[in-house]
Amino acid sequence: MKKLLFIFPHPDDESFACAGTMSKYSEAGHEIYHVCATSGDKGKCGPFNITCKKELASFRENELKKATDCTGVTELILYRFPDGGLSAMNRETLVEKLRETIIKVLPDVVITFPPDGVTGHNDHITLSEATKQAVVESEQWLKPHEWCDLYYVSIPHYYDHCTDHAPSATYPITGKIDISSQTDRKGQAIQAHKSQEYSVNRAYPGILEGDFRVIKPYEYYTLIRSKGVEITPIAVEPVPVFDFFTV
Ligand SMILES: [Zn+2]
C-alpha cells in the first residue's frame, strides 16, 4: 500500500485534472489524500441561489466531499485559505502548512499543478510553487526513505475547449496514466461540482447531462523531483504510459 497526496487550490481542480488517477489508485488499495487549499468561495454559484461567500464555501465543500466519495479519497484535508488570495498570503505560512501535511501524511507521491497553473490562475501558480518548496523542505525533516516523488499534472485536452486559457507552451509531459476503466468515476466526480456548471460545460461539455464521451482515457504527468533529486523534464512523443510505482 502506497500513499498519494494531491494538492490543489479549489474544489473541482482535482476532478478536472486527475479524478481518474485518484479512482484507479484507490481501487488498487492505495491511500489517497487530498489537500484543497481554499473552499472556492469566489467561484460562481451556477443554478443555485447562493448570496454570501460563507454559504458558497460550505456548498462547494459539500460538492467536493461528493466528488471525493466518487474517487475513493481516504482523507480530504481542507485548509480554508482565501479563494483568489494565495499569492497575497505570506508564502512561508503557506509552505509551512504544506510541509506539515507532507510530514504528517508521509506520501510516496505528491501531485499538484505545473508552474503554468494549467489555466494561468494565480492560486494554481502559487500553490504549485509552494508545494515544490514544501517538498524540498520536507526532506530536511524526514529520513531519505521517507522522501516523496513530486509530479505535476497537466490537462492538455482542456485547451481543446478553453483555447483562451492555453499557455504559450504547455509544460513538458513525461508520462500518462491509463484511466480508461475509471472514466465513469471521473464523470461522476466532475458532476458533483454542479455549482461550477459554467466551467464544467466549458472544459467538459456533456458531462452534466450524463454524456461522458468527452473524457479522455489518459491523465498526464511530469516527474520533476525524485528522492531528493531535481529532474529537468523533457517532453517525450508519443507520451509513454506509466505507473507511479513501477517507474
Ligand atoms: Zn482552480
Please explain how this structure is put together.
- It is a single chain.
- This protein is an alpha/beta fold and 247 residues long.
- The chain has a single domain (3-230), classed as LmbE-like (Rossmann fold, 3-Layer(aba) Sandwich), CATH 3.40.50.
- Helix content is 36%, strand content 19%.
- It has seven helices and eight strands, in the order βαβαβαβαβαβααββ.
- It has helices spanning 13-27, 53-71, 91-105, 122-141, 158-161, 183-191, 197-203, and strands at 3-8, 31-38, 75-81, 109-112, 149-154, 175-178, 218-226, 229-230.
- A hairpin with a 2-residue loop joins β7 (218-226) and β8.
- The longest helix has 20 residues, at 122-141.
- Zinc ion binds next to loops.
- Zinc ion (ZN) binds at residues 9-10, 13, 121, 124.
Count of spatially separate domains = 1
What is the averaged pLDDT score? 93
> What does the main sheet amount to?
8 strands, mixed
What is the CATH topology? Rossmann fold
- What is the CA–CA distance across the termini? 16 Å
Helix content estimate: 25-40%
- Taken from the alpha-carbon principal axes, the silhouette is globular
The first-level CATH class name: Alpha Beta
Bound ligand species: zinc ion
Radius of gyration: 17 Å
Strand content: 15-25%
